[in-house]
């Protein structure tokens, strides 16, 4: 990997100079991947800024993670440099930690990008993140009679196979 | 009306050339249709039941009779049952009027073409009722489509039938066949009639609800449309009814445009005389019957093949596209040609067609 | 109407409450002959015109994301191939790429020949997926002849895949660190021959679709998705490209061997924004895929196809983007220096594309609803990925996984209780 990663570094620098302390962490992960971490409502500003400056209209996906330290986080993936003019695209992973585990709340990007609706509903369904401003935050994937407040992708939700493994460990 | 006449007529209605024969030829034509359609798509088609799968349509029908018959709670059950039975009965009745074993049909009277026109419309009405009684969300659009489609193919089909009646100056199928025999040519060879023949085939395709006009039953859009709630025996009846309608439409086309069950005797008067002479003779009458039946079967099969090819070549239209096509093109053209036929038949008969007919006049 | 109550009528749009409502609702799915997999759309219809559509997905949710956390990486390759039956290979490429990118932080590198083999199989998969779609779309518009013929030609590609991998559906070609199977010269020759035939057949289908009147009548001006809307709704893959939005991960963010022939790569777009446009884009993409395969077969380097990778994957957060036949596929991998992923997030193209469908359907005829839905090439088993069968007791929600014998018993009991059904 002898590539210079200059473009990626430029984008990180621009973001840092623009937002200053709001950016908790920003780095170049590897070729064509940037990682940025901000606090809750600031990601809306970063989105607006990126959409204005780089025309970053392409939201790829929204991931949700139950991190090892027990914090629920959402990761927005989007093309920071839109793929036009033969350039390779650079995509950004924008991570936002939620403050509470009981009712994690994030600001929705629905009004900026309508297509985020389904990604947010998926994260809401499976990880229990509440997106404020999403007008249609109802079940997407799980059945309607699934118990409220149970979120299968959280680490405290164990499958049968995981329960068996735990029981074995405890025996030892 | 002797007792023998009655017995023969009843046997005729039940077996040959009545219900039994019509159902056999309907199933045979379905097999032909499926085999040909499959060949056009590079498939094999029915293969295992009987010779090359010739018994497959019969097996399908029997299987449907044995299937579970489910009726939705919200549906009008008696209505569903009646429509299934009447849907089967109407094409059977209509087929009795088609000349198959003779130049006249089993039942025949002056003006029977009007009755047939009425019966074809009744079939469409039964389809409308069948969808209506089954009270299903998916049947309703199918029913509505069937109703609006009805208007746009019935008019051309009736115009085509009456155009032939006008050309041949006869309101009975027997008269039409006789006219063709006397004129030594099928009606198709009168020029404006070619248009009506094409219109008749097109409208038949729509009436039979076959692609590209299978709009009321479109499987991938409204899940079978009006027949979605029908299962078991009732579905079997409707399927058989569809086959019978196909034979009826093909048979009517053959009668109106292609000389009915007659064949080469049109151009060979001595053969025609011989056929006429053996009609009273009990032993030889069988030869005449076999000859007429074979001719009818061959011609019907040709029409069925044309309809099958038509089915394989196009995508399904949308209902409003079909209505547009029908009202903007087919109906005006048919009406125009009809008017020409109406006003110019006497003139053309005397002036123009005398030359044209000379080509076929071998006597 | 014998039973007006049975047909649920929508709320009246305007006027007094006693007015007859002018819209009613028609369900599309979960079981529907036009849908190859279960999903549900509630269509609000005014006559034959659709005024609104509400999707409901999740009928084939199997818990793959959760299950992936309990399995090792090489077992996960097998698992993610089962996400989808049609685009199975691209899932395993995506996961392998993610794991290898994490290993690359420690200097691990995959042999180039393995990358070529992966890419060839991925493009073969694209060809068979697109031809399959063409057949399905033809069936939706009632053109069964094209359906049968195109699926006949798809068999060539399926034969090739079987020849290379031994399987027709889940190819199991990938391993972390390379490919499992090599290609020999006779396979390459056979592939070159078949690709010529496929290319010729696809050119023929392009002619048919562009010139056949009934196809054009059914697909033109149907399911319009304007470029601006496509961007707003995060459309991806052929759906976006058919709206004139030139995004293609193979070109924008090359992975595997796509970087090698980026200069001959064409991003196929078409600008009529309707179903017809999606048909054309997919057919041309198939032709292009044949060209790429031929290029790769001629330029495939010699060398090893596999390099043994360490079992533990170092801690990293990797976003792996690939272009599945249906659009952009995302695997977001959190590894934690063990042999199992900490979190594997899969986002499939259908989830991105499904919310463009209501937009496309609005104002169209009911008859066009299925072809419009089919035009995004939906793959619902991709979209839903989790199972736990839940026994819902309101007071005490209990979650349990049912075994096969339990399910059978439940089925028997249910039928014994509901005998009226059998009658």
List keywords for this structure.
heterotrimer; A: 172 residues; five-stranded mixed beta sheet; two-stranded parallel sheet; 7 strands; B: 363 residues; mainly alpha; 0% strand
Using the alpha-carbon principal axes, give the shape of chain C: globular
Give the oligomeric state: heterotrimer
Uncertain ranges of chain C: 1-18, 385-399
Number of helices, counting only DSSP H or I runs of 4 residues or more of chain C: 16
Query: Mind summarizing the main beta sheet of chain B?
Result: none
Q: Going by CATH, what is the homologous superfamily of the largest domain in chain C?
A: Cytochrome-c3 Hydrogenase, chain B
Element-level helix/strand string of chain C: EEEHHHHHEEHHHHHHEEEHHHHEEH
Give the strand content of chain B. under 5%
Distance between the termini of chain C: 26 Å
Major sheet summary line of chain C: 3 strands, antiparallel
Mean pLDDT across every amino acid position of chain B? 83
The CATH class of the largest domain in chain C, by name, is Mainly Alpha
Figure out the total of helices of chain B: 14
Describe the structure.
The complex is a heterotrimer of chains A (172), B (363) and C (423). In chain A, 29% of the residues lie in helices and 27% in strands. With 172 residues, chain A is α/β, with parallel strands linked by helices. Chain A has a single domain (6-171), classed as NADH:ubiquinone oxidoreductase Nqo5 subunit (Beta Polymerase, domain 2), CATH 3.30.460.80. Chain A has a five-stranded mixed sheet. Chain A has a two-stranded parallel ribbon with strand order 6-7. Chain C folds into two domains: 64-356 and 371-383, Cytochrome-c3 Hydrogenase, chain B; 396-423. In chain C, 45% of the residues lie in helices and 13% in strands. In chain C, strands 1-2-3 form a three-stranded antiparallel sheet. Chain C has a three-stranded antiparallel sheet with strand order 6-7-8. In chain C, strands 4-5 form a two-stranded antiparallel ribbon. The longest helix of chain C has 29 residues, at 112-140.
């Amino acid at each position: 990997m002898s590539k210079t990663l200059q473009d990626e570094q430029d984008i990180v620098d621009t973001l840092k100079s623009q937002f200053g302390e709001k950016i908790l962490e920003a780095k170049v992960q590897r070729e064509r991947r940037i990682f940025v971490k901000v606090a809750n409502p600031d990601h809306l500003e970063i989105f607006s800024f990126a959409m204005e400056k780089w025309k970053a209209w392409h939201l790829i996906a929204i991931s949700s993670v139950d991190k090892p330290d027990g914090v629920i986080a959402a990761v927005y993936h989007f093309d920071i440099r839109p793929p036009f003019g033969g350039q390779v695209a650079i995509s950004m992973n924008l991570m936002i930690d939620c403050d509470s585990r009981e009712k994690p709340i994030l600001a929705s990007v629905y009004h900026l990008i309508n297509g985020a609706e389904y990604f947010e509903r998926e994260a809401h369904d499976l990880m229990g993140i509440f997106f404020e401003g999403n007008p249609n935050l109802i079940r997407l994937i799980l059945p309607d009679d699934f118990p409220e407040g149970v979120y299968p992708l959280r680490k405290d939700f164990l499958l049968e196979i995981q329960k068996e493994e735990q029981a074995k460990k405890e025996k030892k | 009306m002797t007792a023998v006449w009655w017995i023969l007529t009843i046997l005729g209605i039940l077996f040959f050339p009545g219900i039994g024969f019509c159902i056999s030829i309907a199933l045979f034509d379905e097999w032909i249709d499926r085999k040909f359609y499959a060949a056009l798509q590079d498939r094999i088609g029915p293969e295992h039941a009987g010779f090359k799968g010739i018994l497959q349509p019969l097996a399908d029908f029997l299987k449907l009779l044995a299937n579970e018959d489910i009726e939705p709670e919200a549906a009008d059950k008696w209505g569903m049952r009646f429509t299934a039975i009447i849907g089967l009965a109407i094409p059977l009745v209509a087929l009795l009027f088609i000349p198959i074993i003779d130049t006249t049909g089993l039942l025949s009277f002056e003006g029977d073409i009007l009755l047939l026109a009425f019966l074809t419309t009744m079939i469409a009405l039964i389809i409308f009722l069948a969808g209506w009684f089954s009270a299903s969300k998916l049947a309703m659009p199918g029913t509505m489509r069937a109703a609006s489609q009805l208007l746009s193919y019935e008019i051309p089909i009736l115009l085509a039938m009456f155009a032939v009646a006008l050309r041949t100056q006869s309101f009975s199928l027997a008269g039409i066949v006789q006219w063709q025999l006397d004129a030594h040519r099928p009606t198709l060879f009168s020029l404006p009639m070619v248009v009506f023949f094409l219109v008749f085939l097109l409208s038949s395709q729509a009436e039979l609800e076959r692609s590209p006009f299978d709009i009321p039953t479109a499987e991938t859009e409204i899940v079978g449309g009006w027949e979605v709630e029908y299962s078991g025996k009732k579905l079997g009846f409707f399927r058989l009814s569809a086959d019978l309608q196909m034979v009826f439409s093909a048979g009517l086309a053959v009668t109106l445009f292609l000389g009915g069950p007659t064949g080469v005797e049109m151009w060979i008067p001595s053969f025609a005389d011989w056929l006429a002479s053996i009609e009273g003779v009990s032993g030889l009458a069988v030869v005449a019957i076999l000859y007429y039946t074979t001719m009818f079967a061959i011609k019907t099969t040709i029409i069925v093949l044309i309809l099958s090819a038509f089915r394989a070549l196009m995508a399904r239209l949308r209902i409003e596209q079909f209505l547009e096509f029908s009202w903007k093109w087919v109906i005006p053209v048919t009406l125009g040609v009809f008017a020409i036929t109406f006003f110019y038949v006497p003139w053309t008969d005397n002036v123009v067609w005398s030359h044209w007919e000379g080509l076929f006049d071998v006597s | 109407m014998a039973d007006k109550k049975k047909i649920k009528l929508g709320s009246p749009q305007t006027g007094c409450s006693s007015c007859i409502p002018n819209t009613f609702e028609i369900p599309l799915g979960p079981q529907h002959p036009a849908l190859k997999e279960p999903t549900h759309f509630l269509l609000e219809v005014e006559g034959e015109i659709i005024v609104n559509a509400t999707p409901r997905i999740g009928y084939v949710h199997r818990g793959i994301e959760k299950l992936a956390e309990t399995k090792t990486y090489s077992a996960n390759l097998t698992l993610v191939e089962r996400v989808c039956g049609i685009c199975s290979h691209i899932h395993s490429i995506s996961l392998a790429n993610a794991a290898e990118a994490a290993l690359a932080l420690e200097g691990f590198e995959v042999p180039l020949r393995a990358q070529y083999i992966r890419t060839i199989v991925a493009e073969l998969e694209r060809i068979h997926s697109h031809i399959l779609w063409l057949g399905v779309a033809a069936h939706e518009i009632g053109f069964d002849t094209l359906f049968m013929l195109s699926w006949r030609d798809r068999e060539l590609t399926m034969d090739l895949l079987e020849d290379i991998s031994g399987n027709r559906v889940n190819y199991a070609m990938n391993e972390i660190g390379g490919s499992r199977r090599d290609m020999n010269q006779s396979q390459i020759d056979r592939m070159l021959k078949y690709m010529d035939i496929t290319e010729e057949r696809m050119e023929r289908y392009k002619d048919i679709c562009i010139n056949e009147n009934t196809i054009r009548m059914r697909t033109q001006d149907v399911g319009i998705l304007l470029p601006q809307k496509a961007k707003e709704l995060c459309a991806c893959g052929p759906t976006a490209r058919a709206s004139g939005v030139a995004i293609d991960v193979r070109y924008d963010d090359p992975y595997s061997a796509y970087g090698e022939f980026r200069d001959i790569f064409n991003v196929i777009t078409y600008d009529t924004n309707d179903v017809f446009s999606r048909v054309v884009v997919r057919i041309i993409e198939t032709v292009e895929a044949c060209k790429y395969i031929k290029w790769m077969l001629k330029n495939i380097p010699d060398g090893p196809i596999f390099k043994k990778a360490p079992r533990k994957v170092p801690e990293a957060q990797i976003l792996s983007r690939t272009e599945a036949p249906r659009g952009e596929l995302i695997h977001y991998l959190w590894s934690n220096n063990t042999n199992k992923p900490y979190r594997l997030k899969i986002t499939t193209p259908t989830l991105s594309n499904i919310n463009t469908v209501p937009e496309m359907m609005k104002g169209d005829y009911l008859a066009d609803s299925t072809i419009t839905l089919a035009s995004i090439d939906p793959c619902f088993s991709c979209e839903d990925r989790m199972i736990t069968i839940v026994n819902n007791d309101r007071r005490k929600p209990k979650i349990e996984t049912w075994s096969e014998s339990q399910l059978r018993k439940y089925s028997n009991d249910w039928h014994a209780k509901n005998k009226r059904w059998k009658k």
